[in-house]
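[Meeting: bench + compute handoff]

Bench side (C.D.) handed over the final construct sequence. Compute side (W.E.) agreed to return the predicted structure before the next meeting so the bench team could plan truncations. Sequence as handed over:
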Amino acid sequence: MDLAPDPANSHALTSSGRFVRLTSDFNEVRSAWPLLCARFRLLMLKALRREVKSLLRPAYLLLCIVGLLSLNSCSGLFSTKQKVAVSPILTPLRDASTTDLINEVNRLAAVKSIRGKLDIQFQDTSFATSGLAEKYRRVDATVTVQRPGKVFLVIQFLLADIAQMSSDGEHFRVAILKGDERYKRFVKGTNNANYSEIKNGNSTGEKDAGARVEHQAVSALSNLRPQHLTDAFLVRGIAQPAEAGYFYTQSELFEEETDTRPQAKKGGRVVRGYYLLEELSQTGTGDLKLKRRFWFDRVNGIRLARVQTFDDHGAMDTEVSYSAEKSIGEGQTVRLPSHIELTRRKDQYSISMSYQSPESVTIDKVWPDSFFVLENKWGLPEVDLDANNSGARNPR
């Protein structure tokens, strides 16, 4: 680099009686900058020695100290790169239209019935606001679900039935067979009823100790309804063309989340791409309300990963997450998620379910209606949630 003074350039720096021309070429300035910094640092050190001896110019002494401290990092002044750790975006990402997404929902909705053995685990999230949750022991279960809204669930531990639950699509029945004698009950109710008054202890008839025990049993059981499982296993389809008053909109979303891949490092994070398909219904006044939101994982294909449902006030009612898609079925097979997580925040519980043997699951068998009506063959004390409960007329 030519350091001779240039009359055409009036910007100059004096050092030891020499003029250094500042060029407009950034690359030349960048290459010469370390030399200039070193020379300027040497001048500052010499000046500092003189001032320390004389202590006659405290202001200039302070200026020299500040200059030396700032020059310690002057070599990075013109640096344009800095390496930082970021979560990688998973690729490749599949493109899809709204029609493609609807077709994927309807592919899953084509399944009419499922029967299989599960590993199932319940979690009580009633203390979630304080950061606590109570997770129960993982148990075995056999589930049978059939459209529309029918389910029969048997929960076992060490080959002994703990509870049985059924729903015929309109009413549900729950039999608690093990545990504290106070909670061994046969409970009946209506799927769409609201039992908040009973759960809060405001129902009539709690005048004696027996009624209080009954209330405790009801509180433990009324949240966990069998019909919640039906929509989790058998996704409700989307009409094409859309039903009158229903609209669908598609959007894109990228979300940072825990890396769950087999080769993932402990605590690793990734960014996953999603498509969102939102189902809106139009009210009589013309307002639009969000009813369902479908999440589709776009990595290496299009896969339904999550379904969220919302109440009339826009609050989330249910969230179901799907993962580990596999070929499910004995003989007749279909690609379905083998792991399902159901969360009911309002009811303060979640359920994690996985097929024990995906290849042994029975697909699309037609079960008689009587199969989904649980009878009290154990002679358990019965609790009718609809009796003396005015709230039962209000849908949940």
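W.E. noted at the follow-up: The chain is about 20% helix and 35% strand. C.D. will use this when planning the next construct.
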